Each structure stands twice: as structure tokens, then as C-alpha cells.
Amino acid sequence: MKTMLRVMLTIAAVFASTFVLGRVLGMLTEDNVRDWLEIASTLSALTVIAVVVSLLAIDLFVAVPTLTVVILGSYFLGFEMGFAAAMAGSAIAAFGGYAICHRWGEGALAKVIRDEEQRAEMRNAFTAHGPGMIVLSRAAPILPEVTACMAGMTRMSLMRFAMFWLVGTLPYMGIASYAGSVSTLDDPRPAIFAALGLYAVMWTGWFIYRKYWMTGGERLLV
């Protein structure tokens, strides 16, 4: 377990560094995202879709305010197109991270964790606890990308990863997209309530999961 957490923290630190760098350079802030989407909305719906998908896709490499992108994108596009764009961009990031780490993650892991027994222990730990982490990963920034990379690195089957990713991502994106589509500049309350509600539900899920995890009941979630 300690080895798995060490690897996850290492991956998270890499992603966090891009977040800090982006803030220092004034890139990919919520204000930037809002400005880009407003400009795109004056051009065409396809332009807005392209911006939403691109922003969510590059979240794999540079931390992006995901919830802001989804809510604002759906405000300009409406629920159906906003939801489709959100799922497409998120899928590119998730499965891109999975594929990259499935291909090159083992070599990188061997440089961080040189002991083969520790690497095996990490793989076993993620096999047991990874599904719950993937489902609940939207509770915090960076965690979706970390769990996607871990899934690829530990050779979790693609179908298994896709199933748990969909379970966690579909309702999250659906609620965020709907809230954005029914919000207005004069009444942003649906978006605000959705954001607060999503994080409350996700963090409650983490609390329950940790309780089962600590008592051995996590097998019910796998």
C-alpha cells in the first residue's frame, strides 16, 4: 500500500507542478477559460465544442479547471452538445493517460521503484483499491489523471478501466453539463449548487470508501 501511495504522489506532484506553473504564468485560469469560450461562442457552436474538447484533453498534461470548462461549455452549447463535448475531451485525457502509461509506465516505474517485490505489491494494491479510486477520482483535481496513469502502469485491462471510468464520469459530467445549460449570467445558482453538490457527494463517497477500505470491506466495491 505504501508503495502505491508513493507512486501516486509522485505522479500527482508532476501534474501539480504544471498547475503551479500555469498559475504563475497566468495560463489556463478560470478567467482565461471564460474568455476563450465567450470568444468561441461568437464564432460557432463547432468552435465552442473544439475549445471544450481541447481544454479537457490537454488536462492530461496541464491542469485545467475541468468543472468550469464543462459548466461554461454547456452554458454556450446546451445540455446535449455540452455533455457530448465534455465526455469526448475527458475520454481523450483518460484513455490517453492510460495508453501512455501502459506503453512506457513500466520502464518509468522501474526507475522510481527498483525493487521488483515492491512493484508487485503496488500492482496488487491498485488491483484491489484502484476501481474505487477511479470511480471517485472526480472528487479532487489531478486525481482522474493519476488514476488513469496508474491503471495503465499496472496493466489493468482496458475494458475494466473503461467501466469504472464511465461509472464515475458519466453522472459527474451529466450533472455539471445540465447545470451549466440551465444557468444564466443573471442566475448562476444552478451551476453553483451543482458544483457544491458534486464535491459533497464525491467526498462523502471517499469517506465511505475509506471506512470500508480500513475494515476490509473494500472488496464489496471491486
Furnish the topology, listing elements before pairings.
Elements: H1 2-24, H2 30-41, H3 45-57, H4 66-77, H5 79-112, H6 116-135, H7 143-153, H8 158-182, H9 189-215
Helix pairs in contact: 1-6, 1-7, 2-3, 2-4, 3-4, 3-5, 4-5, 4-8, 5-7, 5-8, 6-7, 6-8, 8-9
Key traits:
disordered C terminus, 222 residues, mainly alpha, 80% helix, 9 helices
End-to-end Cα distance? 16 Å
Q: Low-confidence parts lasting 5 or more residues at pLDDT below 50?
A: 214-222
Describe the main β-sheet briefly.
none
- Rounded mean pLDDT is 83
Radius of gyration: 18 Å
Q: Helices and strands: which structural class? A: mainly alpha
Count of strand segments: 0
Measured as a percent range, the helix fraction is over 70%
Number of domains: 1
Can you write the helix and strand succession as a string?
HHHHHHHHH
- Please indicate the percent range of residues in DSSP E strands (runs of 2 or more): under 5%
How many helices does DSSP assign? 9
The coarse silhouette is globular
